[in-house]
Design goal:
eight-stranded parallel beta sheet; binds iron/sulfur cluster; alpha/beta; globular; 678 residues; 20 helices; Sulfite Reductase Hemoprotein, domain 1
């Protein structure tokens, strides 16, 4: 939890490659063609191969699709494409038995494998539970035996939202239920001495997904014979930047924990687009070298025990399995409430030179616009950096030009003398503390706890260990508290943002200090995609764990792109909903309508419905379950046919695709959830 060490897992074979153990983290994608369409499937596999995809999954809805894998595989191998193939199975044990003959890995969903019948979720007696599990076992065992004979590995792929009635009745639709569903199947495998397993615990809610994987490791490492590899993914992440941000946050948070051996980024786009995003996410972690003989990091289980007091050194400063926002005090910057129960705020840096008053003024207004609407996605604080006292005149000129808007302007400096002056002039002032710089102990005595400015102390972390910034800032926090300072923030600028903030929270918690935190991240990436991924991982991970009161990014993105990225990160962590939440699946061979086009059309009409969750799912088989907590659902139910859902209830069954978006809008209006776009 405090520095990177990869969990050491059993190496599992995928035909010509392997994953887990000392292998690099592998990147997988999935075709969205119909598996019976050999030409289209082969062509898409070829494109994925050319994009560098290391594992390709194909959907197998029925036995004939399973049979056709033979032909697809033969054509690919004939063309020299030896990428391992995975058969994706839902429901059909018969399809699985056929598919296992033609692939390197088979994915089963414990929520629906051998589990066609709908059972009431209103309680199972112990006997009923045991009998149903026995029935599942009998249907599953032949697959296990055949996979073992053939040397085919298996992914036990649990999805939040498609758990069996049996599991839901006992554990609820929860991370605990997801874990138990997977463990039931894993125990059956181990009873047959079949150990070529890996797990996944996907959810469209990033926080649920992170918690479920952690919980699995915590439970499985105590119960199962091996530490099996993990396949990471956020399901129904959507498209565009939102899909990339959510995937990077969920997958990256776990990679930062040292968990994960293969990943898939699910986008409602051409699957080829998933591959570069996947490689951009794993690059940093694959560049670390696991030293032979070193067994990765301590299992999360040990961390939990230490949280209870066994080894406090390892204790994470938050609950890794349940979301709780860190308690912080409310601090007002002018009239903007931060910390406490306020949603996390957004702060961005003005890049224009202060000497260019017109340019700086334009940029401040651009970042705050439209200032009048608190609901609009915008930066609520903008930050300007001052180097010398001569620049105070320029700041005054800018403030005069901005008038009332200047209450949103925060200033920063590295100069202690200038900092003291600024506390009387600005609403928020930040002191950047360089590593190795010693602060004059008398410096705090000179500050006035009642000055108009809220104070921020930011440690610029470059070379030292990840503990150092926390130790320095916690000492400072104690002194400020002793002197009665109420309006204080802390932050760290580091390339190990996740770990240094965890250290900081631990130190502050230990001292009972509840000043709010600004989560700062400066991206050095040149490419847009790398910027989005780095920022999402380094800051999104913290917000998913309840850490952070203001998000402050510095990137090379254009102004609107940077603010959108902040909003996407906070929305992905579900800490601040500033627009409609779309939960859309990537589509696969079960999709019989134009999913990408429909998604674009729905987004165009409904993106202004702040906080509403809309599921857009490719098929009626898995869609309704997997759109999880969506308020409304648009689900493919056949060739050019759509079913519309309100919550979990299907209210319009199998209507023509033409006009379905209008009908969806009608349903939203009928339920009083519609507002007109501005
Ligand atoms: S929900 Fe989407 S990705 Fe999942 S099986 Fe259905 S069409 Fe395929």
């Amino acid at each position: 939890m405090y520095h990177y060490r990869r969990r050491f897992t059993r190496e599992v074979s995928f035909g010509p490659i392997a994953l887990g153990g000392y292998q690099p983290i592998r990147v997988e994608s999935m075709t969205n063609t119909h598996t019976m369409d050999t030409a289209a499937s082969v062509e898409q596999c070829r494109k994925l191969y050319e994009a560098g995809c290391e594992i390709i999954r194909l959907t197998v809805p029925a036995e004939r699709d399973a049979e056709n894998l033979r032909e697809i595989r033969a054509q690919l191998r004939r063309d020299g494409i030896d990428t391992p193939l995975v058969a994706d199975i839902h429901f059909s044990a018969r399809a699985a038995m056929k598919a296992v003959e033609h692939v390197e890995n088979i994915r089963i969903n414990p929520g629906n494998y051998a589990n066609r019948k709908k059972f009431s979720s209103e309680g199972y007696t112990d006997d009923e539970y045991r009998m149903e599990l026995e029935k599942v076992r009998n249907e599953f065992l032949p697959l296990v035996r055949r996979a073992k004979e053939l040397g085919v590995s298996m992914r036990i792929g649990t999805n939040h939202g498609s758990l069996s009635d049996r599991i839901v009745s006992r554990y609820g639709n929860s991370p605990e239920g997801m874990v138990e569903a997977a463990l039931e199947f894993a125990r059956i495998c181990e009873e047959s001495s079949y150990y070529d397993l890996l797990f996944s615990m996907k959810a469209s809610n990033v926080r649920v997904m992170i918690q479920a994987y952690r919980l699995l490791v915590e439970k499985a490492d105590g119960q199962l014979r091996h530490a099996y590899p993990l396949h990471l993914g956020v399901t129904e992440a959507g498209d565009g930047d939102e899909g990339r941000v959510k995937s990077a946050m969920g997958i990256g948070a776990l990679l930062e924990d040292g968990l994960g051996d293969t990943i898939r980024v699910s986008l409602t786009e051409d699957p080829v687009n998933e591959v570069p995003v996947g490689f951009a996410i794993v690059k940093k972690y694959n560049d670390y070298h696991l030293v032979k003989g070193e067994r990765g990091h301590l299992p999360v289980k040990h961390v939990v025990e230490s949280r209870l007091g066994t080894t406090p050194e390892q204790a994470p400063p938050f609950d890794p399995f349940r979301y709780n926002r860190r308690r912080s005090k409310t601090v007002f910057v002018a009239d903007i409430g931060t910390g406490g129960d306020n949603v996390p705020r957004i702060e961005t840096d003005v890049s224009a030179d202060l000497a260019d008053t017109d340019g700086a003024c334009r940029e401040v207004l651009q970042r705050l616009a439209p200032e009048k609407s608190m609901d609009a996605i915008r930066s609520e604080l903008v930050s300007l950096h001052l180097r010398s006292e001569e620049e105070l005149v320029l700041l005054d000129a800018l403030s005069a030009r901005l008038g009332d808007v200047s209450r949103h302007v925060a200033v920063s400096t590295e100069n202690i003398e200038l900092f003291s002056v600024l506390t009387e002039k600005a609403f928020k002032v930040r002191l950047d503390i360089r590593e190795g710089e010693s602060l004059d102990p008398g410096f705090i005595a000179k500050l006035d706890p009642l000055s108009p400015a809220a104070l921020e102390f930011c440690f610029i972390h470059e070379q030292t260990g990840e503990r150092v910034p926390a130790a320095v800032l916690a000492r400072l926090a104690e002194k400020l508290r002793e002197r009665g300072f109420d309006r204080v923030f802390f932050s760290i600028r580091s390339c190990s943002t996740v770990y240094v903030y965890r250290h900081l929270v631990r130190e502050l918690n230990a001292k009972g200090i509840d000043y709010p935190l600004v989560v700062r991240f400066r991206s050095t990436a040149a490419e847009r995609l790398d910027t989005i991924i780095e920022a999402s991982i380094q800051t999104g991970t913290l917000f998913c764990d309840g850490i952070g009161d203001i998000l402050a990014l510095e990137t090379a993105l254009p102004v609107s792109g940077e603010i959108d990225l902040c909003a996407n990160i906070l929305q992905g962590a579900r800490t601040r909903m500033s627009k409609t939440e779309f939960i859309s699946c990537p589509g696969c061979g079960r999709t019989y309508f134009e999913l990408e086009k429909a998604t674009a059309a729905i987004k165009q009409r409904l993106s202004h419905l702040k906080g509403l969750k809309i599921g857009i799912m490719g098929c009626i088989v898995n869609g309704p379950g997997e759109m999880a907590d969506a308020d409304f659902g648009y689900v493919g139910s056949g060739k050019g046919r759509i079913s519309l859902y309100v919550g979990k209830d299907c209210v319009e069954d199998n209507i023509p695709e033409t006009g379905a978006v209008e009908r969806l809008i009608g349903l939203i209006k009928e339920r009083d959830r519609w507002v007109d776009p501005e």
